[in-house]
Amino acid sequence: MSLQVKNLHAGIPDREILKGLTLEVNPGEVHAIMGPNGSGKSTLSKVLCGHEDYAVTSGEVLLDGQDLLAMDIAQRSRAGLFLAFQYPHEIPGVSNANFIRAALKARQPEGEDIDAVAFYKQLYARMDQLEMDRSFTARSVNEGFSGGEKKRNEILQMMMLEPKYSILDETDSGLDIDALKVVARGVNAMRSDTHGILVITHYQRLLDYIQPDIVHVLMDGRIVMTGGRDLALELEAKGYDWVQEDARALAA
Predict the structure, then answer these.
(1) DSSP string covering 103-116, please?
(2) pLDDT tens track of the chain, all 252 residues?
(3) What is the pTM of this model?
(4) Backbone CA torsion sign across 205, 45, 86, 138
(5) Domain residue spans in the chain?
(6) Domain 3-89+163-251 - what CATH class?
């Protein structure tokens, strides 16, 4: 049981971006992917979630043994994959509560419904954890939200859907330190033996609050280095040029 990415090659029509990426996230693990701009971090998240602008040319992705690449976007979600967007979308006219309830219902067996009292009890409890005002349940999804409110809303969705594997694509982008701590608290509340998390970030500061088990460095579409928590600190101190120099030294 794991999310396995095997020798994945993918990109847009005129450019290959992922060039043989291999990765495995097991339930209970938190992995972090770091890398400079243009290395393929956001491309990986979009390919895993089935973004139509990206094509896979070779390789495979298995979610608990199932062929993820053969599924459409809705099937990937129902299979247990969740993506927190770097730039969350606005959905005018659809309230937060109705959006989350519809997403939960889509995962229910045919003919089963959601108990409204239990749903709102859980929703309010999760919102309290994220320090979100309960009035946000009636507001349209992300419409008029600040950057920090949008990111909290993404984590709220994750907490309610309870996926098997979550991909957090630069969740720290645009957050001040207080919002970052609250979002991290929500993510940490979801750590469990049944939930694998892949955190994609430029900066080590997020990893002060969401401490990963494994850190990967992604450069030019490939993972070029893997280590523990200390690797993120080393990257913060030395930068990505150090990784390139180290890789060249090993190749020699």
Answers:
(1) HHHHTSPTT----H
(2) 899 999 999 999 889 999 999 999 999 999 999 988 888 998 999 999 999 999 999 999 999 999 999 999 989 999 999 998 877 888 999 999 999 999 998 887 777 788 899 999 999 999 999 999 999 999 999 999 888 888 889 999 999 999 999 999 888 877 888 888 888 998 999 999 999 999 998 878 888 899 999 999 999 899 999 999 889 888 888 888 877 666 554 444
(3) 0.89
(4) negative
(5) 3-89+163-251
(6) alpha beta
